[in-house]
Design a protein that fits this description.
It contains 28 helices and 23 strands. It is of the alpha+beta class. The strands form two sheets. A six-stranded mixed barrel has the order 2-3-9-6-8-7. Strands 14-16-21-18-20-19 form a six-stranded mixed β-barrel. Helix 9 runs antiparallel to helix 15 and helix 9 runs parallel beside helix 24. The radius of gyration is 35 Å and the shape is elongated.
């Protein structure tokens, strides 16, 4: 509370509040606060969208991961799981379900085939979903439980191999079953490519009667556990995390009891194409948010500076009437605090509506609606307006409070300036804190804010030197009178011109960066998932049938890809040290399963060598056993060039040397491998082949013929997954468009703020020129010429900055290949000149309409 003597100082704090409300209403109606209002609403809207939507997305992805696993936790065993495990889980309040998987031959009439049988109890599925249909190649409906006793569900390709239809009788073990439905989706399927067989699902109650499990049978038991209590309350992210506490406690109890044939299963990274795309989308949304808030802040700073300059006389009058500096500061600060409260409410409402729309666009990714955001996400959005005002408007209000009362008599008296370092320091600290808080991405926030500041400083110094050089070498005498006058005016006011060029260039640069990144992201997704991308994988192709299968694919007209030789192998030793002797390494998923090993003479498409050289099969026998390893796996295993890896394949052991480390573009649906070996390392091993191909819609009959012609080849149908990913990326693209529009709005606001910041100077200049005989048309042509030159130079500068920033973003953050934007150089400088000239023409029409006498008298 301010301490003041109301009888002598004139204003109590309550009167200050009422006066600030009165001034706020008057200045809002007059339009002096319009830019600040719209900039604040934009900042809060963007903050709400990103913070709330990101929180909901993160919670939704956490829920999605458990759906793909089918549970919060899964226990795998080659023997029946002890009953005590399930009893303890139920005592802990966890829901449980047991499944049993094994290969078996199934028979329909004279046809037979090997199937991957999965028996489920009445509680399956705990999480995720099983979709069934009564017709092949059509989406199904969600089934709340598995098949009833006496009935089995089949995948469509198993139905094709058996030449059967819904309702036929199927023989499995000692029992006959009715084919009840087709499985169109099984979210917790999992499995390795080379071991997949068509699925048959049955009820656990039929296992004993069918006599399917005997001593020595190869079976996999799984106990699924999930915390399904208070589902309705699990909408908050914090509550969702809290629901895992019982799972964590159970894991602590369970781990010491696990035997060698038992293990805990977690969700492996089987959806890297989708994950890579979503990671890039999240980075883009964060980048767009940072830039939009930065633009809004810049617009607020420029508008606040203009606002303060127009209220120097008001401040001086208040000081003459007895108000202190603190009271003047409070008077104007209260206006902005009230404004922050109102704009926060409006921004929260707009942001909520837009993020709800974004959530609905991405609803195809999730089975249920996205969880609601936690209170912290709303808190971050709510403080955006006050923090933005603190960083960008408060320094100018402080200067407003320092106006001397003598300005009433001498209007040339300017207020005592405060340190420029303080002004920019406060602004940078506030915007950086805000960006770090709601994006959580330190690297990107620092890259954009600090990198942008350094670029701006370098451009500022460089631009002044360039302007001086241009002044000396440009033959301005050859220009027409309007361009010549505009050019001389810019050169005389070198500092002012460079400031305006930088302002325009920075606005254009931000808009260009966000637009270029958006276009290249969409192109990158489209390249990874084109319309004719492979939607079927063919595995277990034996050497003797590889040529005939390739010929059959060509005959059907299916676009196919090269055959990859493949053999499953387990990594056992690194530099002759047994991997399971290292407790940390032994927990890596890559060491708990067989890896798909292949060889290739050429570096596959989408792969890039980061270290070393590609495989050379021409070396001597000892040196020819080489391997190229994927970079992230190499990092997890802690291996480097020239380290040795020992694999075991079909009872044989061999050692290879790491000759290269490469990155892999997991964003494509083409076959990708962690390990690519030299031909010499695999030539004596039992190889099968893998390929992929595209089956167009409506070609089911050709596919059925192919399946029957090669019944031993395993097909993995990715068409549903492919369709879902393509649809998802289209929706993510729409989300990107929303943010792009908001950034463009921010850019327009800053452009207007830049133009209006110099409107008083333009009016005075116009009055002088009209006094000297210039008419309104000449005045407008002169202004257009000047701003066209500013726009041209700003466009060139913006392109230089865009090239530098995009190169850094692509290389260090987005993992994209960057190409120089030659097409932008062809048209953008001219377009920026026309754009700024038109905006100025619309915004400065009143410059020529002011009476020269009144302007000169008031100045």
């Amino acid at each position: 509370m301010l301490k003041m003597n109301t009888s002598t100082q004139g204003l109590s704090f309550l009167k200050l509040i009422r006066l600030s409300q009165s001034l706020l209403r008057r200045e809002t109606r007059s339009g002096q606060l319009t830019l600040i209002i719209f900039s604040l609403i934009l900042a809060v809207t963007v903050a709400t969208i990103i913070s709330v939507f990101s929180a909901r997305m993160e919670a939704g992805m956490l829920a999605k991961s458990t759906e793909l696993l089918g549970a919060d936790l899964r226990i795998r065993s080659s023997q029946e799981i002890p009953a005590g495990f399930e009893e303890r889980a139920q005592q802990s309040g966890l829901s449980t379900s047991t499944t049993l998987e094994f290969p078996s031959v199934v028979v329909v009439g004279d046809e037979m085939s090997l199937a991957a049988v999965k028996a489920v109890d009445d509680h399956y599925p705990l999480k995720g979903k099983v979709m069934t249909s009564l017709s092949a190649f059509k989406p199904g409906e969600k089934s709340p439980t598995g098949p009833p006793p006496g009935s089995v569900w089949l995948e469509s390709r198993l139905l094709t191999l058996l030449n059967a239809k819904i309702g036929d009788t199927l023989e499995l073990g000692k029992q006959n079953f009715t084919i009840g439905a087709l499985i169109t989706q099984e979210s917790d399927r999992g499995g390795n490519f080379y071991s997949l067989s068509p699925r048959l699902m049955m009820n656990m109650a039929d296992i004993e009667a069918a006599g399917l499990i005997q001593t020595g049978s190869r079976v996999t038991w799984r106990l699924l556990l999930a915390d399904l209590q208070d589902k309705q309350a699990q909408t908050e992210t914090t509550q969702l995390k809290g629901s895992l506490n019982s799972i964590d406690q159970y894991k602590v109890w369970l781990k010491p009891l696990l035997s060698d044939n038992q293990s805990l299963e977690s969700l492996s990274d089987n959806n890297q194409a989708l994950a890579a795309a979503l990671d890039k989308a999240r980075s883009y949304l964060s980048l767009a948010a940072i830039l939009a808030i930065l633009l809004a802040g810049i617009a607020i700073a420029m508008a606040a500076q203009n606002y303060a300059q127009h209220h120097y006389d008001t401040s001086a009058l208040l000081r003459t009437l007895g108000a202190s500096r603190q009271q003047v500061l409070w008077l104007f600060s209260l206006q902005l605090l009230i404004l922050a409260f109102i704009t926060t409410l409006i921004g929260l409402m707009l942001g909520t509506l837009i993020q709800e729309q974004l959530s609905s666009l991405l609803s195809i990714l999730f089975i249920n609606d996205l969880p609601t955001a936690p209170w912290s996400a709303w808190a971050i959005a709510s403080i955006t307006a006050p923090v933005t005002l603190l960083g960008f408007a408060l320094p100018h209000l402080i200067q407003l409070s320092r106006v001397s009362p003598l300005r009433i008599l001498r209007r040339d008296l300017e207020p005592m300036s405060i340190s420029g370092r303080l002004i920019y320091g406060i602004a940078l600290a506030c915007i950086l804190s805000l960006c770090l808080w709601f994006t959580g991405d330190v690297k990107m926030s620092l890259a954009v804010i600090v990198g942008g500041l350094v670029t701006l400083i370098l451009l500022s110094f460089g631009l002044r030197g360039i302007l001086k050089l241009l002044d000396k070498i440009t033959p301005s005498a050859r220009f027409n009178i309007y361009v010549r006058f505009a050019w001389r005016h810019l050169m005389r006011n070198n500092q002012s011109a460079s400031t305006q060029i930088l302002a325009f260039a920075m606005i254009l640069m931000v808009m260009l960066v966000i637009s270029v990144v958006r276009n290249d992201l969409l192109n990158d997704w489209q390249r990874g998932l084109p319309e004719n991308a492979p939607n079927f994988f063919a595995m277990n192709i034996q050497a003797y049938e590889s040529d005939s299968y390739k010929a059959a694919l060509e005959e059907t007209g299916f676009k196919n890809y090269p055959l990859f030789p493949m053999v499953p192998g387990r990594l056992t030793h690194i530099n002759e040290r047994y991997v399971h002797d290292d407790e940390k390494l032994s927990e890596d998923p890559a060491l708990q399963r067989d890896l798909a090993l292949t060889w290739s003479e050429q570096l596959p498409e989408g792969n890039k060598i980061l270290e070393g050289v590609w495989i050379n099969d021409k070396k001597s026998d000892a040196a020819s056993k080489q391997v190229s390893i994927e970079s992230r796996l190499a990092g997890r295993l802690g291996v480097k060039l020239n380290d040795t890896l020992r694999f075991e394949v079909a009872g044989q052991s061999f050692t290879v040397t790491i000759t290269s480390i490469r990155s892999v573009d997991w964003g494509t649906l083409s076959p990708n491998f962690y390990m690519i070996l030299s031909e010499a390392a695999l030539q004596d091993l039992p190889l099968s082949y893998l390929t992929s191909f595209h089956v167009p819609s409506g070609s089911e009959a050709k596919l059925t013929k192919l399946i029957r012609e090669f019944p031993t080849i395993t097909l993995l149908d990715m068409s549903m997954v492919f369709t879902q990913i393509q649809s998802l990326l289209k929706q993510v693209s729409l989300a990107v468009e929303y943010l792009l529009i908001l950034v463009l709005i921010g850019g327009v606001l800053v452009l207007l703020a830049t133009i209006y910041s110099s409107i008083d100077e333009r009016i005075l200049q116009g009055a002088i020129l009209r006094t000297l005989g210039a008419n309104r048309k000449q005045l407008r042509l002169n202004q257009w010429s000047e701003f066209a030159l500013l726009g041209l130079m700003a466009g060139i500068l913006a392109l230089l900055g865009t090239e530098a920033i995009c190169y850094s973003l692509y290389r260090y953050l987005l993992d994209l290949d960057y190409q120089v934007q030659w097409h932008l150089w062809a048209w953008l400088p001219i377009s920026s000149a026309l754009l700024i000239m038109c905006l100025v023409g619309l915004s400065t029409r009143k410059v020529a309409s002011h009476s020269p006498v009144s302007v000169l008298r008031d100045s």
